[in-house]
């Protein structure tokens, strides 16, 4: 072969290789003619019958739509899981052999948990329209995508209903599989957010017969809750209600809240089974909300037509609607996947190679190479289907979850409201509320007809009928037997016990009791320890003199207080020895001296102001001195007969009478106190002096007082002395701090009232410095606490609570008046310094004004006197004027004269000057005529 031939051959081979490569590239970019999609559900089931036909119709609609999957057809590969986790797993593995790009299903949450691990390895997305277990949303299952509403939202809807009717405890009846356990776990979390809880979990094993269901319901009926939440499978759940009806659990007083499985059963029933309907009257059920639309109505009509043609006896339910939208979700994702240039390829997983000759054929399972990209396309889904908006949120759940709330009655059910995570319970459709801002403060439902054809909202709780009496702990104290005491084996008496028994009788249900005494009777038990016994379920309740305090409320639930209590201080007092000079004790010596001096000062000031114009303040020197003293001291009794004439005198008198009023009132009050009130021995007069002192303090052993004094008031524990009995109180106070006793005792007022009823030589000092009450303690969130609080209020309003109090506490002969004072003190000048200073300044002001006016008058009077002197002697008068003006004696003589006389004399001198001036004028006229 020549060179030319070799070149020609090389060029031919190159052209052939290029053509082959071009054909390969062209083939790679072409869309496949068919894409396989799997489906897993139970054919013969309430959900499966509706979903199977819906999926088939959806595939037909997708293949008939030219706008989706242009030129590519969906090929549906369906497998029946036969309602078995094992068979479902096997069917899922067989489905994966058929190179499906996505699986619609599984229907069961249990199967979903198993095959999600297979999907993770093979990168095949699972889109379930019925597996509602919230646990499937975990990051452990990245290829699982729920195309219906998670039970997380359904349980929040149930919690909202429970909270709306103010129930606190529910009984959860559920199927004991992944679906049931996951839902109940979500229910517990949702109830906890509403301050409620699941009080009893009644688990029913899968595929249980009627005997097993009857046994489970019987145990549930023994519990206190009457709010039953039923979360089971649709195909076996109806047997629960027929069994409950036999156990008379569908009567008045019960509440049945059923998850969406029952709505699926009712919607799927072609004609209502009246026998079954009679067992479910009064139930409240939930159903996934799907807004009304033309697309939905068109699909429902088409489904019903095809079902009749195929003789399908089951009806369409909401799960069938979600199954239909799931197919469209897969179709949109595949379309976008192919439009982006991705290819549908599968590859073998070397880890699945069978080297031991097993017949499982694991090597036939292939990995979807574009699984991750397909999953991302699915998560970006956004279209409007027959169920409403189909879009996934950041939590991989459908957006805008909402439920219809139905009430079963007659031969069907009626809508009583809606729930959505946007606005909670409402009577308006969720699609309307989603157009408004979130608002859960105005939740509302229409009226419900409850089991037993009752329209009254059930209490939701009764005393448990389990044959066990209420275990009531009672402190066995060393003293204060009036409050609570042990009368014999299992028998207790006292004021607290009588109040408790009276309240129990008012409850609308019987409550068997068993009193359990805590303590040996020689030493007071630790009260917070009894509360802890209630908290850890060793006791059901604690009854006695239990103060409602902070550390107690953190452990247990308290009722409404049935008696007011608070810490007070009690101290020994002594009687005042009668004295003949007791009337001098209200004021100190300084107070007496200053008061007397002020009396004299005011008398002198008023005399000066009235002397020149008032005849009653004139006369002989002896008479005027007597008037000063008489007037000043008679004002103390408002009996002065002298009238004041001058404006300044009246002003001073008004102020002085006010001062006298204050002085006499204070004197009277202090004297009354001194003559009637006992005096303290210790000098402690209240809380402030107690804290600042270093004296020992007694307290009742076992109560919260020690904790309060040390933690709240920062009193050293070394100052505190624990006491148990009333006799211990008296002995410690009588001995006093110097003899190993205490200076005061700090305890709650009811105890001190009992103590002072026996010992009259002690008194409460200061004011009550805490405010709490006594209540009965129950376990946290116990409905008995609320009912007992209502009963206590009823006892109070009827007056029976006061009558029980009067029967146990009689006022003794040495009873004291709470309003009496203790430790009265003498009044010193410091209490009146401001008043006295004000009075003195006013007197000084009046005197200044008076003397300025006198000096001005004296000057005018002196000038008029000088003008009356003869003209020849004018020089001498001018020389003598200064000495006259400066004469203090002349000023005093001027002050002593009557003001009327001064004015009359000055007027006469003025008239004489006018006459002299007129005479001089006439003489000048005559001389000019000549």
UniProtKB/TrEMBL annotation:
Q: Which Pfam families match?
A: ANF_receptor (PF01094), Lig_chan (PF00060)
> What are the boundaries of the region Disordered?
903-930
Could you provide one GO biological process annotation from this protein's UniProt record? Answer: monoatomic ion transmembrane transport
Q: Which residues form the signal peptide?
A: 1-21
* Origin: domain of life: Eukaryota
Q: Any idea which UniProt keywords this protein has?
A: Disulfide bond, Glycoprotein, Ion channel, Ion transport, Ligand-gated ion channel, Membrane, Receptor, Signal, Transmembrane, Transmembrane helix, Transport
Where is this gene product found? Membrane
Q: Which residues form the Ionotropic glutamate receptor C-terminal domain?
A: 471-811
Q: Where are the transmembrane segments?
A: 589-609, 651-669, 835-854
Specify where it is mainly localized: membrane
Q: Mark out the compositionally biased spans (Basic and acidic residues).
A: 903-915
How does this chain sit within the bilayer?
A: Multi-pass membrane protein
Bias (Polar residues) ranges: 917-930
Where is coiled-coil annotated?
Answer: none
One cellular component term from this protein's GO annotations in UniProt: membrane
The intrachain disulfides are 760-814
Q: What family is this?
A: Belongs to the glutamate-gated ion channel (TC 1.A.10.1) family.
Role played: Glutamate-gated receptor that probably acts as non-selective cation channel.
Name by which UniProt lists this protein? Glutamate receptor
């Amino acid at each position: 072969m020549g060179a030319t031939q070799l070149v020609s051959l090389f060029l031919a081979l190159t052209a052939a290789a290029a053509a082959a490569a071009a054909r390969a590239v062209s083939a790679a970019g072409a869309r496949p003619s068919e894409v396989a999609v799997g489906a897993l559900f139970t054919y013969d089931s309430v959900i499966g019958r509706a979903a199977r036909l819906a999926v088939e119709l959806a595939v037909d609609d997708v293949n008939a739509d030219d706008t989706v999957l242009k030129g590519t057809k969906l090929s549906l590969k369906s497998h029946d899981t036969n309602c078995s986790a094992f068979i479902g797993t096997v069917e899922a593995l067989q489905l994966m052999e058929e190179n499906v790009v996505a699986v619609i299903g599984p229907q069961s949450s249990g199967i979903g948990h198993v095959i999600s691990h297979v999907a993770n390895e093979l990168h095949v997305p699972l889109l379930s329209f019925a597996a509602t277990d919230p646990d499937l949303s975990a990051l452990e299952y990245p290829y699982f995508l729920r195309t219906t509403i998670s039970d997380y939202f359904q349980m929040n809807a149930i919690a909202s209903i429970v909270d709306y009717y103010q129930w606190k405890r529910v009984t959860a009846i559920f199927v004991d599989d992944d679906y049931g356990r996951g839902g109940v776990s979500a229910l517990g979390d949702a109830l906890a957010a509403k301050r409620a809880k699941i009080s009893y979990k009644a688990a029913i094993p899968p595929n249980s017969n009627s005997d097993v269901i009857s046994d489970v319901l019987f145990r549930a009926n023994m519990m206190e809750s009457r709010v039953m939440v039923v979360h089971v499978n649709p195909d076996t759940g109806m047997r629960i209600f027929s069994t409950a009806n036999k156990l008379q659990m569908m009567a008045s007083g019960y509440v049945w809240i059923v998850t969406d499985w029952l709505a699926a059963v009712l919607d799927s029933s072609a004609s209502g089974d009246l026998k079954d309907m009679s067992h479910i009257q009064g139930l409240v059920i939930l159903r996934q909300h799907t807004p009304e639309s033309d697309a939905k109505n068109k699909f429902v009509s088409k489904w019903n037509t095809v079902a009749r043609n195929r003789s399908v006896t089951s009806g369409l339910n909401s799960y069938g609607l979600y199954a239909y939208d799931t197919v469209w979700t897969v179709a949109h994702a595949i379309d976008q996947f192919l439009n982006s240039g991705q290819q549908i390829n599968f590859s073998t997983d070397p880890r699945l190679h069978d080297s031991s000759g097993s017949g499982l054929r694991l090597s036939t399972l292939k990995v979807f190479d574009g699984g991750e990209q397909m999953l991302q396309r699915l998560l970006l889904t956004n279209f409007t289907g027959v169920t409403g908006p189909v879009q996934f949120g950041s939590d991989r759940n459908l957006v805008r979850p909402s439920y219809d709330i139905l009430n079963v009655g007659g031969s069907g059910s009626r809508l009583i409201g809606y729930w959505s995570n946007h606005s909670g319970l409402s009577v308006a459709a969720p699609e309307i509320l989603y157009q408004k801002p979130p608002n859960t403060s105005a939740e509302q439902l229409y009226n419900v007809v409850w089991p037993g054809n009752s329209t009254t909202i059930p209490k939701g709780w009764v005393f448990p009928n389990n044959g066990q009496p209420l275990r009531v702990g009672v402190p066995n104290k060393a003293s204060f037997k009036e409050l609570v005491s042990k009368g014999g084996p299992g028998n207790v008496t006292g004021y607290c016990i009588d109040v408790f028994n009276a309240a129990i009788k008012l409850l609308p249900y019987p409550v068997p009791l068993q009193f359990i005494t805590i303590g040996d009777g020689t030493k007071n038990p630790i009260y917070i320890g009894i509360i802890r016994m209630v908290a850890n379920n060793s006791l059901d309740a604690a009854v006695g003199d239990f103060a409602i305090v902070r550390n107690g409320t953190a452990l247990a639930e308290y009722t409404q207080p049935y008696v007011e209590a608070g810490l007070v201080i009690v101290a020994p007092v002594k009687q005042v020895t009668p004295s003949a000079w007791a009337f001098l004790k209200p004021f100190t010596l300084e107070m007496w001296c200053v008061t007397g001096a002020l009396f004299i000062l005011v008398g002198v000031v008023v005399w000066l102001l009235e002397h020149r114009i008032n005849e009653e303040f004139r006369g002989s020197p002896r008479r005027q001195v007597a008037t000063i003293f008489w007037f000043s001291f008679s004002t103390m009794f408002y009996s002065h007969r002298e009238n004041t004439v001058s404006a300044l005198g009246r002003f001073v008198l008004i102020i002085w009478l006010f001062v006298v009023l204050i002085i006499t009132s204070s004197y009277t009050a202090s004297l009354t106190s001194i003559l009637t009130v006992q005096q303290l021995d210790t000098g402690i007069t209240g809380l402030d002096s107690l804290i600042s002192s270093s004296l020992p303090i007694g307290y009742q052993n076992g109560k919260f007082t020690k904790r309060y004094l040390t933690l709240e008031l920062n009193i050293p524990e070394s100052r505190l002395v624990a006491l148990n009995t009333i006799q211990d109180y008296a002995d410690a106070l009588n001995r006093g701090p110097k003899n190993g006793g205490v200076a005061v005792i700090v305890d709650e007022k009811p105890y001190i009232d009992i103590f002072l009823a026996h010992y009259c030589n002690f008194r409460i000092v200061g004011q009550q410095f805490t405010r709490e009450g006594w209540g009965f303690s129950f376990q946290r969130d116990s409905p008995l606490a609320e009912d007992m609080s209502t009963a206590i209020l009823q006892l109070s309003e009827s007056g029976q609570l006061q009558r029980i109090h009067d029967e146990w506490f009689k006022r003794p002969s040495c009873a004291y008046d709470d309003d009496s004072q203790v430790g009265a003190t003498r009044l010193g000048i410091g209490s009146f310094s401001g008043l006295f200073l004000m009075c003195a300044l006013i007197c000084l002001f009046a005197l200044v004004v008076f003397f300025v006016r006198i000096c001005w008058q004296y000057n005018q009077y002196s000038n008029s006197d000088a003008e009356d002197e003869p003209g020849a002697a004018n020089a001498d008068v001018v020389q003598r004027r200064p000495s006259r003006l400066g004469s203090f004696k002349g000023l005093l003589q001027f002050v002593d004269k009557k003001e009327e006389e001064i004015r009359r004399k000055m007027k006469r001198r003025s008239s004489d000057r006018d006459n002299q001036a007129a005479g001089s004028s006439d003489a000048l006229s005559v001389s000019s005529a000549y």
